[in-house]
Amino acid sequence: MYLPKDYRNNNREEQLEFIRKNSFGMLVSDVNNKPWATHIPFILNSDGTKLTSHISRGNVQWKYFSSEKEVMVVFLGPNAYVSSSWYNHENVSTWNYIAVHVYGNLRIIDGDELKASLKELVDHFEADSAHPVSLEKMTPSYLEREIHGIVAFEITITQIEAVYKLSQNREKEDYENIITELNKRDNNAQEVAKEMKKRCPY
């Protein structure tokens, strides 16, 4: 991952909190000597050392899983276009964003471990539902059939890299003007503005 000094974030707690809040990630691994990506939700364990998820058994990616090969998971946060017309001088336009890359070793899980992982995932994402779904409420035969259609896994995290590209290299007037302009745009841009305001270097 390209990590310019101005944008690098090495704060482990912020990295983990970001993953928890932006848990829909992209699993990247090697499939027959080509990069392969699958977009799926992840659960980060309490001490921030492991990620769990699952993919469809019909997805060939799992057939190339190996504990000997490192995988990468990409988590993307708010991002927005930044027009150079917002600066007080001639410059080029850019894009502000927050992204975290997680690297680790993957192993397939099954049996009770798979069911526990699936229960945690369902309970987590159903927490805000008016009528939450749960594994316990599912017909056992139906649940077993559905479980047979997935491949669950756990990733032991070996490294986390994070980029918070939020115009930290701009002077105060430009920085404040970017926030103002972003707040005039959609929710995604406003989220970037919120992060910029929270992390204002001035």
Task: Just name the CATH architecture.
Answer: Roll
Number of helices: 5
Radius of gyration: 20 Å
**CATH topology heading:** Pnp Oxidase, Chain A
Lateral arrangement of strands in the main beta sheet: 2-1-5-6-7-4-3
CATH superfamily: Electron Transport, Fmn-binding Protein, Chain A
Mean pLDDT: 96
Count of domains: 1
- Report the span from N to C terminus: 27 Å
For the record, the CATH class is Mainly Beta
Biggest sheet: strands, sense, closure? Answer: 7 strands, antiparallel
Strand content bin? 25-35%
Explain this structure.
The chain is α+β, with helices and mostly antiparallel strands. It has one domain: Roll (Pnp Oxidase, Chain A), CATH 2.30.110.10. 29% of the residues lie in helices and 35% in strands. A hairpin with a 2-residue loop joins β1 and β2. The radius of gyration is 20 Å and the shape is elongated.
What's this, in brief?
This protein has 202 residues and is an alpha+beta fold. The chain has helices spanning 12-21, 111-126, 140-148, 172-182, 187-198; strands at residues 24-31, 34-41, 43-44, 50-56, 70-82, 94-109, 150-165. The radius of gyration is 20 Å and the shape is elongated.
Question: Which characteristics define this entry?
Answer:
elongated; seven-stranded antiparallel sheet; 202 residues; alpha+beta; Pnp Oxidase, Chain A; 7 strands
Question: How would the blueprint of this fold be written?
Answer:
Layout: H1 12-21, E1 24-31, E2 34-41, E3 43-44, E4 50-56, E5 70-82, E6 94-109, H2 111-126, H3 140-148, E7 150-165, H4 172-182, H5 187-198
Antiparallel strand pairs: 1-2, 1-5, 3-4, 4-7, 5-6, 6-7
